[in-house]
Amino acid sequence: MAFTERRGQPSPLKALAYKEFSDRLKSRWVAVITLGFAILTIVVSYFGSAASGVVSFRTMAATVASLTSLVVYFIPMLALTLGGGVIADERDRHTLDLYLSAPITAAEFIAGKYIGLALSLAVPSLLGFSIPGVILLLKTGVGSMGSYMVFVVNSVALGLVFLSISFLTSVMFYERSKVVGFTVLVWLVFTIVYDLGLVGVLIATKGALTPGAFIVMLLFNPVDVYRILNFTTIGEYSVLMGLASVDIPGFIRPSVLWAVTVAWIAAPLLASYYFFKKRYMK
Amino acid sequence: MLNFVRVTKYYNDIKAADEVSFELVEGEMFGLVGPNGSGKSTLLRMMLGIIKPTEGQVLMGGSALKDNDWREFRRLIGYMPERVSFYDNLSGKATLELFANIKGGSIGNIEDILPQLLPWEVLARKVGTYSKGMRQRLNLAQSLLNNPGFLVLDEPTSGLDPIGTRLLYDILDGVRERRKLTVVLSSHMLAEVEEKVNRVGIMKDGALKAVGTLDELYRGLNLPLRLIIMVKNHSLQGAEIRETLKKEGALNITYAGGQITAELPVANKLKMLAAILGHKEDFVDFTLRQPSLEEVFFGIH
Asked: How far is CA A108 from CA A100, A104, A113, A164, B9, in A?
């Protein structure tokens, strides 16, 4: 066996991204999550109307409505656990100093790790929702294909948002136990507590909070942004998401919601970069 | 090469490095010793450009290094961290490929020494199956992937058996014979450092308490030489020799088991030896021992 100089050597960023993604491929993480999402989609679509005594594939729009209410719990948890230990792990292994002593910038290090983990989350989301989507398409027609595609892309984006938040968590805390604790807190706040709090504020202020102000406050929760974006595409089925009674002001267009989602991806990631440099390289 | 000028580093209120000044000379092997928490790791991390001084400067060629300069300089750096735990799910070969890509090196660069460190069949195995010594050998291999001109070794022989330790130094000697390589060796193994380095720096409480060649340190601390004389006539216990030693200024003169032991101030060495040779019919042999790095170390601590 002999090694020779490799031509076209990947950049440090690509090498890091490849390592993170290939680790999840080899550990079958990607396969298991893909299968999980596919089974969830099929079950939700086929047995979704079982309560009314009927079992058959429902339309894509109805499936999106049901899936949205479940995905808001699963994807944030997966993303937060995927990225939560990313820095603490390297620090504990003493490999972090090895990376930082190499000709690689903090931005390349963070970006390489992020891209690798983002792929590990995006690939199962795309495959796990798209493959059953094709079955739905064949069974129920192309009627709501657009909203289903928005749901798939939006679900990937939701994962990226929480992956960014997990990076920030990983950079902010040295101890793994604190990372885990904060991860659970973040998940609880965004998936349950924030909305309950908003409803509480709405009731306590006896309608003083205008619908416009209420919607703007929803934008501060990426899970709500995800819900509204899916809701705006599926029309009558939005009742299943509990948003039918909310008047959405005209300025909340899909383009605005996508922009807010991108901001939710970028802001925690940029903050991670800032705190990483401050904590490990000052 | 790298010149530390009154470098101080604070971590919040803790002073990890305290006005450290010294220059690394290109091509030398520099030993850095000190107890845990003395600031060695902080100094090493500043040498690698990972962290920046709070006060003072790290100069190269007389100029302070900017971020881009550090990035370029890191292309020349090899680093062997202490207690590194490589990824258990990767093979040794995959680990080396990963770090070759990160550092801009190649396994081809160490093709000649790699079989000495880890046989191919071991490299094909996952790191999770490696012994402590194998992991440390892998650590040395990765540090050389980019043909470094500056090598920083943090406790390099920790976990290595005597064969592994000798191999590590043989490999370093081999690389240094072929090209100019500046090495910084941080270690608790004082005897090992003493044997290998050209110069040594001794850290205590964040400060570089002493720096220089071993000889300079012995002289700087005025450490005495140790003289051991095996006397002929045990019944007299070398009384005359002891009297002469005392007269010439030797200290801590003791007799036990047919041997006189005494400490000689370095300045009196030749005069003292001449005086002892005046009693050559009274002794069988004598040994003159230089102070050890350990004595320097404990002299400072």
From this structure: 10, 6, 8, 15, 26
Select the residue from B55, B102, B158 to test the A interface by mutation, using most A Cβ atoms within 10 A: B102
Structural domains counted in chain A: 1
CA distance B111 to chain A (A): 7
Task: Tell me the pLDDT tens digit for each residue of B3-48.
Answer: 999 999 999 889 999 999 999 999 999 999 988 889 999 999 999 9
Chain B residue with the nearest C-alpha to that of A19: B98
Look up the domain containing A145 and give its range.
12-42+56-280
Domains in chain B and their CATH numbers? 2-218 (3.40.50.300), 224-290 (3.30.70.600)
From residue B60, alpha-carbon distances to A28, A103, B29 in Å are: 48, 17, 18
Whether chain B has a CB inside 8 Å of the CB on A104: the answer is: yes
- What is the C-alpha separation between A179 and A173, in angstroms, rounded? 6
In a domain, A6, yes or no: no
Q: Cα–Cα distances in Å, from A217 out to A201, A212, A225, A230? A: 11, 9, 10, 17
3-state SS class at B236 = helix
pLDDT tens for chain A, 282 residues long, are 344 444 567 789 999 999 999 999 999 999 999 999 999 999 998 887 777 777 778 888 888 888 999 999 999 999 999 999 899 899 989 999 999 999 999 999 999 999 999 999 999 999 999 999 998 888 887 777 888 899 999 999 999 999 999 999 999 988 888 999 999 999 999 999 999 999 888 888 887 878 788 888 999 999 999 999 988 877 655 555 555 556 677 778 889 999 999 999 999 999 999 999 998 888
Out of A1, A9, A92, closest to residue B120 by CB: A1
Residue contact B74–A3, C-beta within 8 A: no
In a domain, A156, yes or no: yes
The minimum CA-CA distance between B179 and chain A, rounded to whole Å, is 20
Using DSSP, state whether A112 is helix, strand or coil.
Answer: helix
Closest-CA distance of chain B to residue A28, Å:
13
B301 CA to chain A: closest CA distance, Å? Answer: 29
Chain B interface, best mutation among A101, A104, A105, A282, by max B CB count within 10 A:
A101
A7 domain residue, yes or no: no
| A5 inside domain | no
**Of A70, A113, A106, nearest to A230 (Cα)?**
A70
Which one of B82, B102, B114 has the shortest CB-CB distance to A104?
Answer: B102
